[in-house]
TrEMBL record:
Encoding gene, per UniProt annotation: tmcA
Domain TcmA/NAT10 helicase: 221-392
Region (Disordered): 164-185
PANTHER family per the UniProt record, alphabetical: N-ACETYLTRANSFERASE 10, RNA CYTIDINE ACETYLTRANSFERASE
Lineage: Archaea, Methanobacteriati, Methanobacteriota, Stenosarchaea group, Halobacteria
Organism: Halogeometricum limi
Positions that bind acetyl-CoA: 520-522, 561
EC number, UniProt record: 2.3.1.193
Kinase among keywords: no
GO MF, one annotated term: ATP binding
UniProt name for this protein: tRNA(Met) cytidine acetyltransferase TmcA
Function: Catalyzes the formation of N(4)-acetylcytidine (ac(4)C) at the wobble position of tRNA(Met), by using acetyl-CoA as an acetyl donor and ATP (or GTP).
Compartments reported by the entry: Cytoplasm
Keyword vocabulary terms for this entry: Acyltransferase, ATP-binding, Cytoplasm, Nucleotide-binding, RNA-binding, Transferase, tRNA processing, tRNA-binding
NCBIfam families noted in UniProt: RNAactase_tcmA_Halo
Primary enzyme class: transferase
Amino acid sequence: MTLSALASRLRSDARRTNQRRLLVLAGARDAGIDAAFDVLDGADVPDDEVTFVTAREGFRFDRVHPKHAGTLLGTTRTAVVCDAHEDFSPNVVGRLAGVVDGGGLFVLLTPPLGEWPATDGSFEESLAVPPYAVSDVGGRFRERLVDTLRSHSGVAVANVDDGTVEREGATDAPASTGDWSSSSPRAHAFPAAAYEACRTSDQSRTLSVLERLRETDEAVVVEADRGRGKSSAAGLAAGSLAAAGTDVLVTAPAYDGAREVFARAVELLAETDSLAEHDDEAHVVRAVGGGRIRFEDPPTAAGLPDDPDVVLVDEAAAIPVRLLAAFLDAPAAGFFTTVHGYEGAGRGFSVRFRDRLTESDLSVTEVQMDEPIRYARGDPVETWSFRTLLLDARPAVDPLVADATPSSVEYRALSADELAADEHLLHEVFGLLVLAHYRTEPDDLARLLDAPNLSVRALLHDGHVVSVALLAREGGLDEATRRSMYEGARVRGNMLPDVFTSQLRDEDAAVPVGSRVMRIATHHAVRSSGLGSRLLAEIRREAVREGNVDYLGVGYGATPELLSFWDDNDYGTVHLSTTRNDTSGEYSVLMLCPLSEAGRELHDRHADWFLDRCSGVLADPLRDADPDVVRAAIRACDAAPPLELTDREWRIVVGASFGPGMYTTAPDAFRTLALVALAAEDPVCTEREGRLLVGKLLQGRPWPVVADELDYHSPRNAMKGLGEAYVSIVERYGAGVPAVESERARFERDESGD
């Protein structure tokens, strides 16, 4: 069979079934590109319906660089040609697989399949983080890719070097019925035009459920695989609500991800003569009746600016739970999430967010969208991408692990070879990582299998994974690399040494070898049962036994709960970032658990530096940090700030605590004592007083703001509370200091009247 004939038959099958077909053109790059032109001609695909995704230039078709493949999300093409010879990554496949429309072709240009697993490209180079070389990077993901291309239904393979067809990509899929009709419910509040715009009954049903958002105290959760039209449904709901005068706030990890929402809303408002203004640059749509639709990034939207009537959260699985919980304070909220996809795991969102939903005052309605819009069910390109990229990975079902306890589990080091050879084990490990983390991509699967600096540790219960940690080796860098890092060069895969060196100006920080806990996850059925701590303890014991790392480390978006967890597991705070994470809106904290003398020295000097600069950063870039985060970070520091006050400073502190003095006379003395008190393992202050120390003494917030945040009746009452806090502090830390004793005695005599 000629290549043109194969392409013609694949396109005919795709049209007949309203599915897509995948054609692999394996061989030399130039020969593959020439063959792709023949395929497009043979498949009778018009030039304006083709996109060529390649790093090369000079094509008559629409051309997109692989690094910009994400710009195609939300669009459809009859044919997409992906050049995998350069700048290829698993993420590119994940993005492009959903772009091809029903009846179309996905064409993949690859090296000879037998050679591809050993052929390094730019993605493999990105996995070779110092001190590793590209030769250290594995080829397991590419082996997986080749195996599925050679075995999956609906995938044709042609050798462009010798002109032979290895696989014809035949399937037994039935012809499509072509029934894509959708109808309005008998009774509906949204405009009829909104239902007429729905392409499936699933979409119409979902839109009907979204009518609940017209009322307060309602929440709707929409879960769907990619290509089911959930963003379109969100847009139709937004347009319908705005047309009725509602203020709709839309958020998503990035505005590009919400473009479909705005596009469908604008179309509907225009169709119903309700569109007043569309400012694409400002991301605002205004309706004739006064309603509007506006976009804000998640951290900003979490503050519910201008008190919206409804919040719509697109790609909710890619947003941290802490921010999602903030949207439950809105009058009504809709959450739209991808179940299987690199955007995030919808099931993970559901599990991690379930408690917050249940505890909220909102009445929650859930709806699942199953019917594909762009192609028919059973599409082979979709099932191939799910299988290859593990988009459907999930942990063990609850009953298999529900009885797991710290004493019933087995600690295992899982090698990349073992994971690649055991599909069931790989599914459980990757599924658990996906479920626990708000953002997991296909690239992460390849890193798990091939990155030389990564390793996996797990706890298994009756052979099933109940807790897993992904570890990254860092540090141990040569002098030249350390120097370049100090001078501003970015060194991949060494997050902790990079921050210590480039930001904190410690050129020796990359000498010790560390193992950073990139991710840790415990099965939701056995959370809060001590399994995470057991896993960390085993990792530490193994590291001490092997003697090949100087410290364990971790970096994450700081919350009081997480800081407490890591503190309990002997990790100490050494840095709190001064900028918020764009996605989570949280300040990141770095923590170390030293294992050797070199690790102890690294930990101690950075813990001391952290406390030394606390007053400065808290009064400026961290002035808006959550006081509970600050309290927990300081307490977890595992270092003692120096307590060095002059007799005069002690007398001023005692005078403000026991007499008529004022802290503003010598604020540095009060800040010094505040740090000492907050760092103590045995708290000397109540939680409220600790927040007061942070908010007023360390962050310098105005008295009215502090009083309001801490529910004091007035600023005067807050001032009184600060004095009471310092009574306790002076009693503990001033005991035995002559200046303190004499000053206290003076005020005590005055009170007694002597």
